[in-house]
Amino acid sequence: MNRQLRKGIKIIEPQPVLEGAGVRLRRSIATRALDNIDPFLLFDHFGSSNPDDYIKGFPMHPHRGIETVTYMIQGVVDHKDSIGNSGSIGAGDVQWMTSGSGIMHEEMPRAQQGEMMGFQLWLNLPAKLKMMKPRYQNIDSNQVPQINRQDGIKIRVIAGEVDGVSGPVTEIVADPTYLDVTIPPNGSFSHLIKQGHAAFAYVFEGKGSFGMNGEDKGKAIAHPRLVVFEDGDYIKATTANQPARFLLVSGKPLNEPIARYGPFVMNTQQEIELALEDLRNGTFVKS
Ligand code: FE2
User: Fold this and answer.
1) What is the pLDDT of residue 140?
2) What domains are there in the chain, each with its CATH number?
3) pLDDT digits (tens, 9 = 90+) for 137-163
4) 7 C-alpha vs ligand 1 centroid, how far in Å?
5) Ligand 1: centre distance to CA 281 (Å)
């Protein structure tokens, strides 16, 4: 079978954004340059060694109609919500939160010495599941399998499958892949992604070449950048004299209308208005 390489068709430079109560972060999806990559609605990278950049956090706020995925690299975020969950997300941990009909939660980074770093991704929910019961999957770092290949490549599998190893996040409608991949210098990594699924890489350390072959091979992409891949069968990333670390994310597009307003993403404007009305009336949280 002749497998088709997915080329990198867009390279996105993250934009500085002030979010929550005043958190400085870098946004690559949900910007003027890139509204969404169906089913992905937003992608934020927070990282700073100055607590002033993150300590104000994200006090109590609602979500409806989406899933939010937080993955920490360094530091700790304390969280609590309207359905009785509370805890902290530390280095290597993942929180996959399906807001469904609605949750209220807060996400507060803890002040610390050194670097605080993590990511938040939003996935859309299909119309028939937008009002589903909220669901949390909290995954400790030690539940995330790490593959150490002989060639020095390290892969943490959060969702999806690599070398027969499956990630702990399951039963997500977008059938997602979420990998944290480190390639040493002069390395090469390929990964099959289902045809028709949207895919992107977010480079957050070092540099590498993504979705390139032949004459383009020399064009390395230095962090931080998001690379959007075209459709095809597999992605390929290579490194030269530097290592590269990146997230590789893919998922099945919904192809449904998107009506978004802040933390609510529905299919129609009327549904957005209903969410606002529910908030005003105190009927937002259904369970
Ligand atoms: Fe949130």
Assistant:
1) 97
2) 8-281 (2.60.120.10)
3) 899 999 999 999 999 999 999 999 999
4) 32
5) 21
